TrEMBL record:
SUPFAM superfamilies: CheY-like (SSF52172), GAF domain-like (SSF55781). The keyword Transferase applies. InterPro entries: Bact_response_regulator (IPR050595), CheY-like_superfamily (IPR011006), GAF (IPR003018), GAF-like_dom_sf (IPR029016), PAS_4 (IPR013656), Sig_transdc_resp-reg_receiver (IPR001789). CDD domains: REC_hyHK_CKI1_RcsC-like (cd17546). GO terms for molecular function: kinase activity. SMART domains: GAF (SM00065), REC (SM00448). This is Response regulatory domain-containing protein. It comes from the Bacteria.
């Protein structure tokens, strides 16, 4: 057994000894004569607490008990050392006290004795979120936290997630740190644990997604007035120029071909090509699963196709000189194939799953741009219905501005100036009557659409989005589905509209330009309790966790841009069902 020699003390000052585990038998009587012995169970937590607070001069334990404790310690250390994530123990100031091998491999040098962020070589630290005691995300930070001290929430006792940029570390410049407080018996935070993981691949992927979305926003490239003055050929040349630039600069593909599907004949007509053989560019292809190359197969099935080796593929027909592999994706708008995008490489297995993922995402933006520029119907005879739709497209946003301005003023003057409020309500009614009258003229001049083609007929929908292109597309798509649409560019304008109208559904972008997404969501629900509120998002990261918070409040639908028809119909119709069930 272990014995710690007791120091020589006076008769009136006896040393205190801690006895771990069971009695040591014959040693009890000898110890009782010279010291005060206090027993404690063999539980690690209780031993640690007594040692921290007891001021003992020595510890006594049986040899087999000590051997077992050392064995458990060795086993625990072995487990921690083999954790795939970096783990470090910090003091309350953020200085590293201990680190496992994975953490040490994250940067050169010895981490112990250095602050966490100094060792990692970080130049930028952001607080992603802070958790309450029950693990619920409560905020990115609070007023009591120092923005210059990212560890302050953890020292306050809250688990904290940090995103750190380490520019000198080329292998893992972006890392995520989960900081957890170690709370002492007296309630103070005396240490912190930091669990570190490399998130560079996720961050780089998100940056590519953001770049894709930004490129998609710029594809159409001109405002409505400019497009009105352009003929079909000019519009096509505009899109071809923008497509070439974005495909080369963003996706880094040099050999490309884009074809559009003629729905009447199923012919895939060339729109643009770079680097293709002349005979390939002029080849007549149809959307058929056989006999029309990979492009025809993709257009017929609506499924992307990776050709790893052109020498051994039954569908491949020569497209580019020296091509050894190809990748072809369908261009889809509202889940309908409208064309194909094909790229080729001089290397076998030149394209992988990551290339396919980003090309498919980009193809959605290409399809949206094709639709926005109206390339698919530009050569068709202009009917009365198309003329009405064009008028609607031109006046929709200006009328929305009138509605928004009147609603904001009404909100301010409804009590202070009743006469002005009456006039503003007349303006609102007149503006809405103009929209209804144009829609009625369109219905009178064209054949009434089948009921199944307008599943949202009679529905009132509000769309809040800072992107004018999205607002225009919302008018076009929702109008074709039969809904009455109003839009707003800011959260405040949307709330003003919602306060004076009875919408069935409100689509709100996840982060309006003038307020927090969750704040806007709550105020919309309060302003128009009968409406279903759904959040919309592109590829950006939801930093404030507005979607998580809104889902906790009962939100059912999140829509991704560009909108899909089935998503919109489901959000409106299922929202109505949910409300009916809740009130019934």
């Amino acid at each position: 057994m272990l014995r710690f020699a007791a120091p020589e003390v006076s008769v009136t000052e006896r040393p205190r000894l801690l006895l771990i585990g069971p009695s040591v038998g014959s040693l009890d009587a000898a110890l009782a004569g010279i010291a005060d012995v206090e027993p404690v169970s063999a539980g690690a937590a209780e031993i640690a607490q007594r040692l921290r607070t007891g001021q003992f001069e020595g510890v006594i334990a049986a040899p087999d008990l000590v051997a077992g404790m050392i064995d458990r310690f060795h086993r625990d250390e072995l487990i921690i050392s083999h954790i795939e994530k970096g783990l470090a123990v910090l003091d309350s100031t953020g200085t590293v006290l201990w680190a496992n091998p994975v953490f040490r491999s994250g940067a050169p040098g010895e981490p112990v004795g250095r602050t966490l962020f100094d060792f990692l070589g970080s130049d930028r630290v952001s607080i992603e979120h802070v958790e309450s005691a029950n693990g619920r995300v409560i905020a990115a930070a609070t007023e009591s936290d120092d923005p210059a001290d990212p560890l302050s929430p953890a020292r306050r006792g809250a688990a904290t997630a940090l995103r750190v940029h380490c520019p000198a570390n080329t292998e893992q410049p972006f890392i995520e740190i989960d900081v957890r407080p170690v709370i002492a018996p007296d309630g103070r935070v005396n240490q912190l644990t930091a669990l570190v993981r490399n998130v560079t691949s996720q961050v780089v992927q998100q940056q590519k997604l953001d770049a894709l979305h930004a490129a998609g926003r710029e594809l159409a490239g001109l405002d409505a007035d400019q497009l009105t003055d352009m003929n079909v050929e000019a519009r096509v040349e505009l899109l071809k120029s923008n497509l070439r630039r974005t495909i080369h600069d963003l996706l880094h593909y040099d050999t490309i071909e884009v074809r559009l599907l003629d729905r009447k004949t199923d012919e895939l007509k060339p729109l643009l090509e770079d680097g293709m053989l002349p005979e390939a560019a002029q080849r007549v292809l149809f959307a058929r699963p056989t006999g029309n190359g990979v492009t025809g197969f993709v257009a017929a099935t609506g499924v992307s196709y990776l050709c790893p080796d052109t020498a051994d593929d039954p569908h491949y027909i020569a497209g580019a000189a020296g091509a050894r592999s190809s990748m072809t994706v369908p261009l889809k708008f509202q889940d309908v194939v409208i064309g194909t995008l094909n790229v080729e490489s001089p290397r076998v297995n030149g394209f992988g799953p990551a290339d396919l993922q980003f090309t498919e995402l980009f193809s959605r933006e290409v399809a949206a741009a094709l639709h926005t520029l109206d390339l698919l119907s530009a050569q068709q005879v202009c009917t009365a219905g198309q003329s009405i739709e064009s008028v609607n497209k031109e006046i929709a946003l200006p009328l929305d501005e009138v509605l928004t301005g009147a609603s904001v003023l009404l909100e301010r003057l409804s009590e202070a100036d009743p006469d002005a409020a009456v006039r503003l309500r007349q303006i609102l009614g007149a503006a809405r009557q103009v929209k209804d009258s144009i829609a009625q003229v369109g219905r009178d001049m064209t054949e009434a659409p089948a009921a199944g083609n307008q599943p949202l007929l009679g529905k009132q929908v509000l769309v809040i989005d800072s992107d004018e292109r999205i607002r225009r597309m919302a008018h076009l798509m929702l109008g074709r589905l039969g809904a009455t649409v109003e839009t707003a560019g800011t959260g405040a304008d949307g709330i003003a509209l919602a306060s004076d109208a009875d919408y069935d559904t409100i689509f709100q972008e996840v982060k309006p330009p003038d307020m927090g997404g969750y704040e806007c969501y709550r105020r919309l629900r309060a302003a128009c309790p009968s409406a279903t509120v759904a959040l919309t998002t592109g590829f950006g990261y939801d930093v404030a966790h507005s979607i998580v918070k809104a889902r906790a409040d009962g939100m059912r639908h999140v829509l991704f841009k560009p909108f899909r028809q089935d998503q919109i119909v489901r959000a409106v119709t299922e929202g109505d069902t949910a409300r009916a069930g809740a009130t019934g």
